[in-house]
Design a protein that fits this description.
39 strands, Lipocalin, 420 residues, five-stranded mixed β-sheet, disordered N terminus, 52% strand, mainly beta, 5 domains
Length: 420
């Protein structure tokens, strides 16, 4: 639905012949009425309910009349025309009142020509106004002079056109502007106030890589991977793209947004991968978002197209508990793990107790050729005692040898001393 159509609905609701309207936002009601204050006809705007406020338009120089009033977000939008008492000329006005009563826009759109405000369109910071100016033809009638796109905000950038604007269409990027004798739009006014025309574009750069989605901001027609498209265009499907618009050729890549895993990560728990768009594959098989990956293994999550490959490699380890690599234990151990395990080349159930003394090798296999190897020893109490005795014996022998060496050297010293 275009914003012009929204305004048309508002007109139908309040009635073209009426000079008042009632609008409500979040408990704040705005009543617009025609009143006479000190002999002057004014447009009285009063807020009640959540917020209370009063604004008046009109004085002994100009008389204000209401055309349209509608709501956009937290704002009341009011549009009408003024009559200058002395010159008997008409000029449109545009007013925006926040629901708390703050008058954020109060624009009187003066022109030497007959001017009408055709439509007002909210931008991120400001408003796009579609104005139409007419000129007197010498016979008491007015004929079309030009249309104007006027941006109210921090930066005002009026554009004049000798061709009538027939429609302004609201799109995700902003507004597409259509003209009377053209089948496609050739102007895009972005929400950021940027105006793109005459082949200008924004949002993509050659060689760039984007994540999740990307919007190509342009007006008119272009080609994307050889297919004709109309701007602006938002892409969500991962892949490699070539965009051609007139003499502009831009090559870029769009990757999916992926959560739950990082490249080359080693996980010690179940994994769930979420991704935005495309068909995910896990080790060459279809993978649905959020599906649980339990067992150990070497994994590659990927999304593929004819000329595109996006991959994230990662591991899930066997989560072995009860033994550690190259450790020695003095009694039975209970081993738990994920995957398929073998102890000394014989199958071992997870949770089994191992008590045989000696050297052991545990191998746990997982997906895609994954192998985790743990070597450990178990020594009996007798063998531990024998080891301790040998160590003590060796230590004692060293003491005996050392003592004998000292005694022998002392005896030799005395013998040398007694020799004449």
């Amino acid at each position: 639905m275009t914003f012009l159509k929204v305004i048309g609905v508002a007109v139908a609701l309040i009635g073209m012949a009426r000079t008042d309207a009632t609008l409500t936002i979040d408990g704040t009601q705005l009543d617009i009425t025609r009143e006479t204050v000190d002999g002057v006809s004014v447009l009285h705007m009063e807020g009640t309910g959540m917020y209370q406020f009063t604004h008046q338009l009109g004085d002994d120089t100009r008389k204000y009349s209401l055309n349209h009033a509608w709501v956009h977000g937290d704002d009341f939008l009011i549009e009408g025309y003024t009559l200058h008492h002395a010159t008997r000329t008409y000029d449109p006005f545009f007013v925006v009142i926040h629901k708390d009563g703050t008058l954020t826009v109060n624009a009187l759109l003066e022109s030497p020509l007959q001017q009408d405000l055709i439509g007002a369109y909210p931008l991120t910071d400001g408003y796009l106004l579609h104005m139409r100016e007419s000129i007197e033809n010498g016979h008491g009638d007015f004929q079309f002079a030009h249309d104007t796109l006027h941006i109210l905000g921090e930066d005002e950038s009026p554009l004049e056109f000798t061709e009538k604007i027939t429609d302004i269409e609201a799109v995700d990027s902003g507004y597409l502007v259509y003209f009377e004798f053209q089948d496609t739009a050739d102007i895009l006014v972005r929400h950021s106030q940027e105006i793109l025309q005459d082949g200008a574009f924004a949002g993509i750069a050659s060689g760039a890589t984007y994540t999740d989605q990307v919007t190509i901001h342009f007006a008119g027609e272009a080609h994307l991977n050889g297919q004709l498209i109309k701007g602006p265009k938002t892409l969500v499907t991962p892949g490699k793209y070539t965009w051609t618009h007139g003499e502009s050729v831009v090559n870029f890549t769009l990757d999916p947004a992926v959560s739950g895993i990082e490249a080359n990560a080693i996980k010690s728990s179940d994994v769930r991968i979420d991704y935005t768009y495309g068909q995910g594959m896990l080790n060459g098989e279809y993978y649905a978002p959020g599906e649980v990956i339990e067992g150990p293994g070497d994994y590659v999550f990927g999304i593929y197209d004819a000329n595109y490959a996006f991959e994230i490699p990662f591991k899930i380890n066997a989560r072995v508990d009860g033994v550690e690599h190259l450790k020695t234990y003095d009694g039975p151990v209970t081993i738990t793990y994920q995957g398929e395990g073998y102890l000394n080349n014989e199958f071992l159930d997870s949770g089994s107790e191992v008590s045989d003394p000696g050297a052991h090798t545990l191998k746990v296999f997982g997906a895609n050729g994954y192998l985790e190897t743990i070597q450990f020893k178990i020594e009996s109490a007798d063998s531990m005692a024998m080891t301790d005795w040998l160590e003590l014996s060796l230590m004692g022998g060293s003491i005996v040898l050392a003592s004998w060496f000292v005694i022998r050297e002392v005896w030799r010293f005395k013998k040398r001393s007694s020799t004449p």
